[in-house]
Write a structure and sequence with these properties.
- Helix content is 50%, strand content 9%.
- The protein is of the alpha/beta class.
- Helix 3 packs parallel to helix 5, helix 5 runs parallel beside helix 10 and helix 7 packs across helix 9.
- The protein starts with 23 loop residues before the first strand and ends with a helix.
Amino acid sequence: MSVLDTGCDRTADDGRRAAGELRRFVALGDSLTEGVGDPVGEGWRGWAAVLAPALAADEHPVEFTNLAASGALTKDLTDRQLPAALALRPQLAAVLVGGNDTLRAGFDIHRSTQALDAVLGELSGHRARLLTACLPDPGTLLGLPAALARPLARRMRAVNTVVHALTDRHRAIHLHLVDLPWLAERRLLSADRLHPSAEGHHLIARHFHQLLADAGHPLGPPPAATPAEPPPGRAADLWWMATRGTRWLAARSTDLLPGLLALAALEAATRLRGTTAHHDDRMARATARALASLG
């Protein structure tokens, strides 16, 4: 399965509203939006922080707050990030989430759909312009064995289908992030092969900037194509994986590894019974029911 086959439907309408200046920008999501893969000092920068200064059409800076947190699920946005975001009264809100949901043993597309709809609905109801994106399949990015790659791809298709439907429902601006050349241009991925590199984060920021400009929002010049800092060398990548990367993976493994092993066992049994297509159909039906439940 290619990285492009993840339920990314280009028919999603950006539902343009009357464009205006975007003075307050809040980003919600997980490690992708937190900035993992784009280190600055002891922290992360990421695409949203790269985009924020480019939103200012004049000398007045944009107020930017990044609420995204590594490992966040869709329900974490409703429970933790959304209240903080609403308090900031954003004019622009980015909501990129769902990848971690696919990696959990208790994945439930109905629950994820309800949570994401609630987040987008609340932000939109408070007149925030929304940014969404469909996400690449993590199994393909990581080159996982087929027994893991297939169920993850199935789940990612479901999440992306929901994201596209909710993009239309809440009139968001959508980036087909899955279509960016992550595998063809390896430099766009960080050492962990799961998150964008600094250059990858800049690419995402530039694409969102273009979409906002196309929607008529007054903006500043687009972000640079590449970061000012030189890319880390091979030794720096290995050092990161051995230190900070190892800690990140260990923190995630406590909740990811059991679920991934269970997925692999279930997929192996599915293949032996020849019921893979049945599981694909069942996931598609569950996704359709989840969206229908929204009314």
